[in-house]
Protein: UDP-N-acetyl-alpha-D-muramoyl-L-alanyl-L-glutamate epimerase
Organism: Luteimonas cucumeris
Amino acid sequence: MTVFDRDSIQSFHFTGCDFDAASGVARLRYAFDDGAELVETVTIPGAPFVLDGARAQAAEQALRLLHLIAGVSYYKAAVPERIRIDGYAIDAATAALMEEIYVNGLGEFAYRNGLNLHGRIRFPADGQGIAKAPTLGLRRHALVAIGGGKDSLVSIEALRALDVEQTVTWIGGSQLIKACAERTGLPTLNIGRQLASELFELNRQGAYNGHIPVTAINSAIMVFAAVLLGVDQVVFSNERSASYGSMIEGTGEVNHQWSKGWAFERDFGGHVQRTVAADLHYYSLLRPLSELAVARQFARTDRYDAHFSSCNRNFHLLGERPASRWCGVCPKCHFVFLALAPFMPKPRLVSIFGRNLLDDPAQTAGYDALLEFQDHKPFECVGEGRESRAAMATVAERPEWREDAIVERFRREIRPQLDAGELDIAPLLVIDDEHRVPQALWGRLRAYLAT
Ligand SMILES: CC(=O)N[C@H]1[C@@H](OP(=O)(O)OP(=O)(O)OC[C@H]2O[C@@H](n3ccc(=O)[nH]c3=O)[C@H](O)[C@@H]2O)O[C@H](CO)[C@@H](O)[C@@H]1O[C@H](C)C(=O)N[C@@H](C)C(=O)N[C@@H](CCC(=O)O)C(=O)O
Ligand SMILES: Nc1ncnc2c1ncn2[C@@H]1O[C@H](COP(=O)(O)OP(=O)(O)OP(=O)(O)O)[C@@H](O)[C@H]1O
């Protein structure tokens, strides 16, 4: 058996991609040097698909975009200096977008592995500029990504309130997400995705490993599905706080959730309209909101209390799922508990989590990191430090919370060291104007979010 020697690998190849319209299966193929192909599959329900000329062309563009972006899972195993694309050519704009996604989306990966990817990742641009994408006449309908957590449920309820037709869509086999999707009572779509199983073997043999920009991959899958299904909107639920990373001394900003941020949304969404379909809108409905503003929206209904979870330990592809929907010890559990506390009655919140995290001294270090007190914000999808500090300062004023262990310590040790003027929660709930929400929806959405 040959062993994977990551340092001897010279090049990464995008060896090809194809789509079988009869079965709905897309195959994304990759290889290192002259090695065996690694094949990832994505299965879109609803086959057979019948695509006319313009839509077939758009589907091919969307498939290539997905092929390029999903390659990041495999490229990271060796991060070789050369990249080759077989079967199709890309233009300079596409190459620049891929370099942006790979360098930034692998930011945490590079930091943890002691690698510098700046200037190292070069996609070969040898194609003519891609012809401007036509308007396909897509029907008004939203494919809304659902992740099992609070954010997408806020978007789904907003679209329901605004009478936007939607299909609640998720990728992969998570039972938790399925239960949340079914709880919405709306039409659902479950897209299949199988990573090349050889990747796990490469990991065992010492491949580089670490975080990848999974939201970029999910976005490209959803855009491909939207073209096949003939719908005009792909809706994500990425809040504005996601654009801010962790400040690492000596390194600068490293953003775990880069592909949930505004730069990705703006550049990917623009590229889709230019190269796939002019009338296909990719946007995040929650971009104008902070994490705290999303938490406030979520608290408006208890419909999902017994179903949702933001704890990422539920979403491993391999291995066991946690016994409880909320592990109670990870940064996401810490943050979501804190973010919801100002907006929910205490008994409701404690009953969702099955315990009171703010009264557990064992969680002190976790909360210090969120507050950026003698630590940096964790590499997780959590709000900004100033949001955590404002939420903590708010509950510290509430009689039902102020004596709980973590809150009491905050009042005693941390708050006196903070600038009181920066602990007000109200400015963090303001609705921002930087977003890609279609104009036709924005006015009504703004009014809904402001109530
Ligand atoms: C569930 C989770 O948090 N997984 C992260 C974890 O991976 P682990 O090895 O513990 O388990 P698996 O997720 O089962 O992954 C097995 C291996 O497969 C690789 N892989 C997985 C998916 C993929 O699309 N490409 C892949 O190459 C993975 O690297 C493993 O080797 O630790 C990994 C290393 O830090 C993380 O990369 C895993 O994160 C998943 C890709 C994942 O889906 N995470 C989401 C829950 C997540 O972090 N979402 C963020 C969005 C961040 C973003 O940049 O878009 C969020 O919650 O907002
Ligand atoms: N398996 C998935 N399939 C489709 N979309 C997903 C999947 N997992 C996450 N997403 C989407 O990716 C985006 C980021 O995920 P994230 O985990 O932040 O959101 P969430 O699960 O809705 O809420 P929370 O932040 O509370 O976990 C959201 O738009 C979410 O819907």
Q: What stands out?
A: The first strand starts at residue 11 and ends at 20.
